Amino acid sequence: MAPDPWPKTSARRQVARREGAKLEETALAVDIVAFAASTCTEDNSHIFSSAHCGYPAPGYPGPSFVFTPFFTIGSFSFTKPMLLALICTAVVLAFFWAAFSKPKLVPRGAQNLGELGVGFVRDQVLRPMMGKRGDSYLPFLVSLFFFIWIMNLMELIPIAQFPPMSLIGFPAALMLMVYGTYTYLGIKHQGLGGYFKNMIPTGLPAGILAIVAPLEILQYVLIRPFTLAVRLFANMFAGHILVLVFTLATWYMFSLTIGLLFSVTSFVLTVVLTAFEMLIQALQAYIFTILTAQYIGGSLEAGH
Fold first, then answer.
1. Does 204 map to a domain?
2. Is the pTM of this model over 0.85?
3. Is the N or the C terminus of the chain less surrounded, counting Cβ atoms within 10 Å?
4. Closest to 266 (Cα-Cα) out of 38, 55, 42, 23
5. Whole-number Cα distances in Å, 125 to 73, 150, 233
6. How many domains is the chain built from?
7. In a domain, 22, yes or no
8. Which whole-number Å values give the CA distances from 257 to 245, 263, 283, in the listed order?
9. 3-state secondary structure at position 101
10. Distance set, CA 290 to CA 11, 221, 269, 301 (Å)
11. Which domain holds residue 211?
């Protein structure tokens, strides 16, 4: 007896209907996005506006992290974060030149602040990690700390209002510089073979050593530089997103209705988060610098 064809035909119809419904939903979603793009702008994106538009959420990629280039040369584009990096470099150079170009026996003004900054890095970063033998690296660590800190502070400066370290390229560039420095110093002071040999602990049983040795080498070669860059990037990225969200919410919900309550709450959270972000900005500069000092100190002599 021939099999009944109707069950297969019914199943095919159901599949066709489901696929048709998915296509209709996709087309509707595209139409909604296109309509929102044409009618909703930053000028009328307010919860109580006549257009009833939602404000574009900050995120990456988006206008909060992707900037229109000031100029382009071939494939190179000069953007706002690059300009901020140059400004921060100039600020650090100008400050320390003003502080120490003509030092006085009794420090005043910029020299007084400069000595406080240098003393902080020396006593709280360099000496605990490297001892007095690391004093020759003090200028490098001072420059690194204040450059990162000023770059982070750009988030709170009017007009700038963006921390370049929230773009992974800037922490990655600093990480490569630090990684190249402590790797070079390790090979210089311990020799090529000794540098890699001293990564591995001694006195362990063969079975445990077979597990520990690859992990230690992986830590030196990959984990250290990766976490050094990502830690700074992730903290600044997340902090900038939080401040943006509550700042935008303060304006988005502001009106002489119940929305005022939510707007005031968002404003209070913005102030609190801004104060917290100032702490994080200094703390991340400190952590990056003290880890750099630790890695350089470990390169000057065997770690195990």
1. yes
2. no
3. N
4. 55
5. 41, 18, 21
6. 1
7. no
8. 21, 10, 40
9. coil
10. 66, 19, 31, 17
11. 57-300
